[in-house]
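[audit] Reproducing an earlier prediction to check determinism. Same input, same settings, fresh worker. If the tokens differ from the archived copy the diff job will pick it up downstream; this log only records the rerun itself.
[audit] input (92 residues):
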Amino acid sequence: FVNQTGMTQAAAATLASLVIVGLTLALAGLSPGWAALAGVALHVSAIALAVFFAAYCTRRLGGITGDTIGASIELTETLSCFITLLVWKFLV
């Protein structure tokens, strides 16, 4: 499944997610500018973590497995929750 996903699918999913997160943050009380900035920060940090973790797993394990994909999801969710907490504490 991982090998079947290309940049087109990744870009479409990221764009859809950016719109959903930006609208959710705006509806929750952030100004549109801050909502867009927070949404981009959430996505850039999650993508960076996933890419670095995949490179780490490839170097250490020789590839990516279902377990490493699951671990990547949990790590990015934790990072996203932390960033959301910071945004809520300092911007709302």
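[audit] rerun output stored. Observation attached for the diff report: Residues 18 and 50 are 17 Å apart (CA to CA).
[audit] end
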